[in-house]
Amino acid sequence: MTTPPAFIVRPAGWHLSHRALHAVRRTVFIKEQNVPEAEEWDDNDEHSRHVLALTVYGEPIGTGRLLPDGHIGRMAVLREWRGMGVGSTILSTLLELARQDGLRTIRLNAQTHALDFYARHGFTIVGDEFMEAGIPHREMQIRLNP
Questions:
Q1: Exposure string (b/e) for 102-139, b if CB count within 10 Å is 16 or more?
Q2: Superfamily name and number for 7-143
Q3: Which of 49, 80, 112, 122 is the most buried (most CB within 10 A)?
């Protein structure tokens, strides 16, 4: 049996960690998925709670954010780290932050290829398919217990 690679996921302030957060999002969204740069960056970053996944050597490998209204977004994991639990840990950490903030309904816009991932974490589809940054998405939500 092989041991999974070690990583940590921790809250990250935008002002202190924006370079690491930018690096992951630039690699995944702008370079890999061809999201226009102007659509990736917005004013929500400064007002959101972010989490950062790091290797044991401190290299950024994943990220996600929670907006004050309970919307999760900008979830990204570097390709070589996918399938190793990084995304699940990021999502669980964001949901715990939402609970701490007293949020009860959490929403996200899931890329359609990731619907099963979010469904495994308790999210359900609540909207029709739509395009965002040229990528098909569906709105999903989850109700959190206090």
A1: ebeebbbbbbeeeeebbeeeebeeeeeeeeebeeebbb
A2: Gcn5-related N-acetyltransferase (GNAT) (3.40.630.30)
A3: 49
